[in-house]
Amino acid sequence: MTRSLPYALLIVLCLSTYISCTENEYDILLGRIEKINSPDTVYVNQTFEISTTFSGGSNGCAIPSHLEFDNADENLLVAAYYKIPRTESACTMAIPIHSITSEHSFSTAGFKTIRDIQGNVSKEIFVIE
After folding, report:
1. Domains of the chain, first to last
2. Mean pLDDT in the chain?
3. Which of 65, 53, 68, 54 shows the shortest CA–CA distance to 104?
4. Does the pLDDT of residue 4 top 60, yes or no?
5. How far apart are CA 78 and CA 118, in angstroms?
6. In terms of Cα–Cα distance, which of 77, 66, 75, 59 is closest to 30?
7. pLDDT in tens, 48-63
8. pLDDT single digits (tens) 65-85
9. 3-class secondary structure for 43-100?
10. Beta carbons within 10 angstroms of residue 116's beta carbon
11. C-alpha–C-alpha distance, residues 125 and 38, integer Å
12. What is the reported pTM?
């Protein structure tokens, strides 16, 4: 029985190493936003959808990951990220176009700008009291 304990610990160690490695099988990189879609007008504290279309990756293995937002004065800055596998795979050569939708709301009224962090694309939105 005591002999099997080291083997059991070895198996647990191997499994935990395998699980930790498979969780990090992708690199997450910043994409280039091509278009931002949102309503033209919303109310204060109303939840609405922001949809971004962005390019990312050097081949067809890239997949959309997530959006990140940062409030800066009257601007809402958005960054779109994609994932690409770290391992070699058979992929198409086409650079993929991704789309991700996320929900947001504004707590103050006025004209707001949703802008990508790279400064290339923006969308105006009017927030009503």
Report:
1. 26-128 (2.60.40)
2. 82
3. 68
4. no
5. 9
6. 66
7. 999 999 988 778 888 8
8. 999 999 876 789 999 999 988
9. ECCCCEEEEEEEECCCCCCCEEEEEEEEEECCEEEEEEEEEEECCCCCCCCCCCEEEE
10. 22
11. 8
12. 0.71
The token pair at 74 is 């009257």
In the numeric block, the tokens 């922001």 are attached to: 50
Q: Which long-range contacts (CB under 8 A, 24 or more apart) does 19-28 make?
A: 24/86, 25/85, 25/86, 25/87, 26/65, 26/83, 26/84, 26/85, 26/86, 27/83, 27/84, 27/86, 28/65, 28/81, 28/82, 28/83
Query: CA-CA distance, 15 to 118, in Å (whole number)?
Result: 41
Instruction: At 61, list the tokens.
Output: 């293995």
